[in-house]
Amino acid sequence: MKAEEQLSRSRADIKLVEWENLHFTVKFLGEVSESTVEEADKRLKTLPLRRMEVGVRGLGAFPDLRRPRVVWAGVAPQDLPSITNSGQQVIDALEGIGESDDRGFHPHITLGRVRSPRNLEALTSVIRECSAKEFGRSTLSLLKLKSSDLTPSGPIYRDVKEYSLQ
């Protein structure tokens, strides 16, 4: 069973991310000017990033299971070094651009945002049950610079630039 199906069955008040919007966020830039986008593009297109296959494994929550706001799927332990290294290269290349973030890179895919505490116990039970579950493997072949416009029905993502991974 897919992670999204299990989360839905908890009947928690969670807004799931649409399948086409699932992604790893490497660095959040925030509101930036067109010249800042051009500078980011200049830096990103020189990175020697490698294509990789990554296992999606386990569910978790930010900030934690007592107060979940974001439910995420993680990366299989054997794949963490390669994705973390690539993510850090991107973060280093974008130093000084966008919002600063001292939390460090934690590779994950946001699956949903918790809107209220309704059925929170059932939700945390699903997350615990799936904390080490394998959800499959995926090939990461593109790095995308994206914009997002927040709307009442959720974010609308737009690809600004794409970089093929070698």
Termini separation comes to 32 Å
Q: What class, by secondary structure content?
A: alpha+beta
Biggest sheet: strands side by side, in what order?
1-4-3-2-5
Number of helical regions? 4
What's this entry about, in short?
With 166 residues, the protein is of the alpha+beta class.
What does the secondary structure layout of this molecule look like, with pairings?
Blueprint: H1 3-9, E1 14-16, H2 34-44, E2 52-62, E3 70-75, H3 80-93, E4 109-114, H4 120-129, E5 134-140, E6 142-151, E7 154-164
Q: What does this protein structure show overall?
A:
- A hairpin with a 7-residue loop joins strand 2 (52-62) and strand 3.
- The model has no long low-confidence stretch (mean pLDDT 93).
- With 166 residues, this protein is an alpha+beta fold.
- The protein has helices at residues 3-9, 34-44, 80-93, 120-129, and strands at 14-16, 52-62, 70-75, 109-114, 134-140, 142-151, 154-164.
- It starts with a helix and ends with a strand.
Task: Quickly list its features.
166 residues, two-stranded antiparallel ribbon, 4 helices, 33% strand
